[in-house]
Amino acid sequence: MLLLAAIGPAPAAGSRLLLHDVGPIGPHVRSDGERYIAASGTTLGAAVTVLDTRTGKRSTVASPAGCFFSDAHAATLLWECEGRDGFETGATLDLATGSRTALPVPPHDVATADGSRYEAIGARWARVRFFSYHSTTVAWISRRTGRLVSDDPGASFVPDLDRAALMRPLCSPVERPTVPDTSGLGVVLADELARAGPWAAGTRYADIEAPPGVVQLQHCGRAPRTLRICRHVQCSDPVITRDFVAWTENDRRGRLVVRSLATGRVRSASRPAPLTPLLAGRRLYVAEAGRLLRVAL
Fold this sequence. Notes:
6-stranded mixed sheet; 4-stranded antiparallel sheet
């Protein structure tokens, strides 16, 4: 279990961040982490708007019939698609080549599973969630062989969907945080951890009723540092580069917080609606009420 190195109030803003409106964006928005931001509506089969953050060019991609846009990673889009008896298929699009691929119903080794869906995509693996009456189970399926892996080695490893071996060890004492289970019962290890070199960041929750989120900054060989205890706001998962860590704090309004890793300087921006942080390469964006805003750092 991680120890909290410091506990304190919300960070004081050293200066105000400037946000530039980039244009409209759909309500279901994802970044591929490198170059593209993609978004769709919330209805089945809704088209996907793709923004190339390097050129500013927008394009529209048709969704496969019976599919809902799910994820983006390294110029690849993922859809979850209707399947038989609740077990969904999937589909991908390579934005660089235009190649589309169908993903099969995952082989389910969880005997009590009532359904499944594709949640995330990588170069070598896709993440699948299986649902049963009282719980959910995460597994990973090889995009090349179809092999299913459901064993999680624990908090000191993180699934890397681009890596042939899948599970990447984390340097001590860095760990994946615990987060509320999607079933609503207890906490489980987070599926991902934001990392940049020796740095990592995550929002963790304790296994208690109505726990506050705790935004933590981690580093190889150092005790973790608590950046924010989110008692009266909903804190997002952080995003991180080698220069800064950023997260949002939402209630009826939204607040973006950016902290320099080199100096500890904190800057923030408040908005009238909740915010979602997005990282495309080293460019930081937030989505707000159907608009995409670029953060001037």
